[in-house]
């Protein structure tokens, strides 16, 4: 229920932020903003977290413990 409330609140906040950003942007220099540009729950995963190969995780967590 708390997550749904957070999504609801961010839907409202993101819409207001997009409206303000579009009011103050230069139409010749920038694109139109959408609420999803400001909504943290709808950002693509690739933007939030970088991906690394499994070998890097093995070096950090497994090899460190065994002393290699």
UniProtKB/TrEMBL annotation:
Residues 27-50 are annotated as: Disordered. Residues 34-48 have a biased composition (Basic and acidic residues). This is Uncharacterized protein. It comes from Thalassoglobus polymorphus.
């Amino acid at each position: 229920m708390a997550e749904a409330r957070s999504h609801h609140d961010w839907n409202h906040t993101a819409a207001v932020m997009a409206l303000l950003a579009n009011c103050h942007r230069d139409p010749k220099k920038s694109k139109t903003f959408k609420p999803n540009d400001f909504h943290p729950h709808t950002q693509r995963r690739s933007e939030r977290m970088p991906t690394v190969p499994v070998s890097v995780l093995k070096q950090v967590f497994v090899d460190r413990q065994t002393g290699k």
